[in-house]
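Narrative summary of target 7.
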Amino acid sequence: MRNGFHRVSLFVAFVLVASSFASASTIGPDYPPPGGVTLGGSGSVANTGGRTFVFSGLDQSLFTELYWGLAAQPRAALDGSLDLLGSPSVNGNVLTYTGVTSWNDADPVGGFLGVISVPIKLEITLISGASWVTAATAGVNPSLGYVADVNGSAFTAHAAFFAKTGNNGATYIALNAVPQFSSGLTKSDFGGGFYYVEAVPDAGSTIGLLSLALAGLAAAKRRFS
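Modeled conformation, tokenized:
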């Protein structure tokens, strides 16, 4: 009986300690995050001016780490078939993903170019309340490159797709501003989410739980032995 009781006690202690630290890995992408979030802002990531995201009302007490970023690598196209954007890089507060798509020149100004390959990109700019860290450091899919480390209850970001078509002096313009022969050829795929490490009980709380559990087992032993 006594050996059985000791085994049960050790098992319960192990379960409690394991459960206290089981959530130490990064979870996500999720939207909304635990505790909720309020989303404001305006615009569209593919239109001129891009999209501003204003996140507020985050409950940082629920996390030891909180990140925001893409749920998957972004995609865009000018030929109706979405192309993957990769090679993520950070310059200051701007994260950039780049790629290439085919485009059938619909604007003869400056000379008809025909079907050509043109660069496309997505820029995500952190305006306030967060900073870029590598996805690997955050425990997030490394193919994303970087995620935003949220350091408060609110932050603001801006995102925009661009294409360099050539007829406008070879400068980048908003993806949806590129002239097309027919509708449905310009496409983009952008999805974000939150990644987080849940707050776990501190050492004192864990010891307190163990003490209560073992005290209850001891009382049960006295009652039934």
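The chain has one domain: 26-199.
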